[in-house]
Amino acid sequence: MCIGDCCCFGCKNISFLHLSFTCLSHLGQNAFSNTPLQSVVLPSSLFFLSSSFAFCTSLTSIYLPSSIKNLSGSFNGCLSLKEITLPQSITSLGEETFKNCSQLKSLLLPSSLIQLQNYCFFGCESLINIEIPATVTRFGLYCFKDCKHLTQIQIPKKLLCIGAHCFENCIFLESVLFYNSLERLEDCCFLFCLGLEEIHLPTSLTYIGQDSFANCVQLKKVTGKTDLCFANQHSFFNTPYSSQLNL
């Protein structure tokens, strides 16, 4: 059984949704988007959830069954969502899953998670704390951009690359811990992280992109792999540390 794309898009008389159909295998894109839904319960027959509830600005409660493996764009623009429990079955948070969930403050990610796709937490400006499991291998483009209250992040041990603009404008980010698996820091990944004062670069690093740490106006100290012949000449533009470089 399926519920089609845009089936109830924009319907104004839906506040609560309890889907108990055990044969429901698919919820279409934007099926309940832009509705005044406040609470949702989903059945255990679902394995994937796309943008079915995007822009449900009143949504505060949702139950995700343990059968769900992937989310993609599912809660984009859900401005009232403050907390959510993610089942251990989830392996991927797709593009724009929690984009602009501006009241989401903390989140416990499942230990089964492998990747965070582009724009996953973009604009989650209330997000203070998030623990990334060691299994994650990828941070996509703009993944945490504009998470303005995020103060610290521990990079997973298996992460190989931090995507472009990933932590751009995380203005209160003070601490970042890298492990010796990390190989690439793409363009602008920590651009305008105004609170960042010190970083330790792992020896595994082979590339630092343009403006990766640009305008980190308090970044004074860089330790670890400081032979930065692999860095772009603007990687540390407009930082106190840039005066120590000869790129």
Automatic annotation (TrEMBL):
Gene3D superfamilies: Ribonuclease Inhibitor (3.80.10.10). Signal peptide: none annotated. It comes from the Eukaryota. Coiled coil: none annotated. Transmembrane segments: none annotated. This is Leucine rich repeat protein, bspa family protein.
